[in-house]
Amino acid sequence: MRYRRRGVALLAALVSALACAPADQPPPSAGPSTAEARTVSDARAGAPGIGDADFPRDGNGGYDVAHYAIAVDYTPATKRLEGVTTIEAAATQALSSFNLDLSGFEVSKVTVDGAPAGFSRQGQELTVRPARAIGDDARFTVEVAYAGVPAPVQDADNLGVYGFIPTADGAFVAAEPDGAKTWFPANDHPADKATFDFAITVPAGVTALANGELTGRPATANGRTTWRWRERRQMVTYLATATLGRFELREGRSGAGTPVIAAVDPAFKKSLDHVYETSGEVTDYWATVFGPYPFDSTGGVVDDYAAGYALENQTKPMYGGFDPDETIIAHELAHQWFGNSLSIRRWQDLWLNEGFATYAEWLWAEHKGKGTAEASFAQNLARPADDPMWAYPPGRAKPNDLFNQSVYTRGAMTLHALRKAVGDKTFFALLRTWTAEHRYGHVTTDQFVALAERMSGKDLGPLFDAWLFQPRRPS
Ligand code: TRP
Ligand code: ZN
């Protein structure tokens, strides 16, 4: 769900109505049939990208997704996925056709509002041509049936392997930045958030872990089990997961009462209690620092796929092939506020996710009496002037090097420099105001700078410019 600026469209409509209406005739009827005829005759193709110049083909224009209902049937032995994804969307222009993002698979059928629609594929774009054009502002439902062996993104010299990754016992699904399209048709860019329902059918004995909470007990028939999960809060596509395999589960509540779901591959059995307890403790602590926990459950998943990284999948961060320590759990759970509840509109602002989650690691150490944020800051500031981190301005993440160390560490240092400039009281009030004002929404760097200036009463332009945008070590 995105928020569009209506003022401009309304003004344009008014101007054209005034220009076209002969002065001596009554204005044209504003009845629904006239309005619909006009918008549909204006219908044109939705853009193949959502408007992020760094990722020009990701996401799409002309509509806004409200909800995904993803039904997938997956067989680990053959790696075959059969999916039906139903998307509820609202048009932001009259549409003769529109695109979804989908990578791989055979598409067998597409319907729009129940009627068969034409479709074609080109690279990762699935173009849908509804039988009747869709009017501006109209709500519509698209259903896509597809099947095949998922092919995750393989980006050897930058991001590694991500998306829907088949494993021996199931799948490891971690899709940042744009791998959701490797398992469901999507408006695959964080600028369009939506709620999600998942119905995942797997051989009995396989556990399916998606975002949010179970909506009922898993039901088994003919040797196959369907797991139904629902994430009722807005979520970006890259955080959607359907991680499958053999898992040991522990469920309960954190001290403050948030439901906790921990799941570990049997190879990481000894981590189950640690992941369960630490995730609950960290979630509760962050709620005292960042503001109320934004989601209905928390937890963590440890799979045996040796990704070597973790991803902050909404409500269920995932750890790929290692026993997560407190620091990384603190990082991934900080993302539930920074990245998940508050999401970026464009990838260049990624420090708003990673800089904040890295700063949270330093805050966690401070909380535990294992070092101070000031010490972490000083240690990094002592890096030599020719350290590559100083050449990479973290406020402008580069599409070919998105997850650069600078976005994490220098991003975190930016927050510490800010904290020192405004004082602890203002700094922590700022973090809570930031998460409250943009809960479940979108954010930009400019908005953060403006809020920091408003709350501190200081001109912070030079500080943010030096820390975020200059290719050298701030003095
Ligand atoms: N956002 C992750 C983190 O820092 C890192 C990450 C980037 C990632 N791309 C990914 C993890 C793809 C898994 C898959 O916590
Ligand atoms: Zn992170």
UniProtKB/TrEMBL annotation:
Chain ranges of the Peptidase M1 membrane alanine aminopeptidase domain: 326-467
Keywords, in A-Z order: Hydrolase, Metal-binding, Metalloprotease, Protease, Signal, Zinc
Cofactor list: Zn(2+)
Keyword Protease tagged: yes
Catalytic activity line of the entry: Release of an N-terminal amino acid, Xaa-|-Yaa- from a peptide, amide or arylamide. Xaa is preferably Ala, but may be most amino acids including Pro (slow action). When a terminal hydrophobic residue is followed by a prolyl residue, the two may be released as an intact Xaa-Pro dipeptide
Keyword Protease in record: yes
Coiled-coil ranges per UniProt: none
Region annotation (Disordered) ranges: 22-58
Signal peptide, first to last residue: 1-21
Domain Aminopeptidase N-like N-terminal: 67-239
UniProt-listed Enzyme Commission number(s): 3.4.11.2
Family that this chain belongs to: Belongs to the peptidase M1 family.
Protein's recorded name: Aminopeptidase N
Lineage: Bacteria, Bacillati, Actinomycetota, Actinomycetes, Streptosporangiales
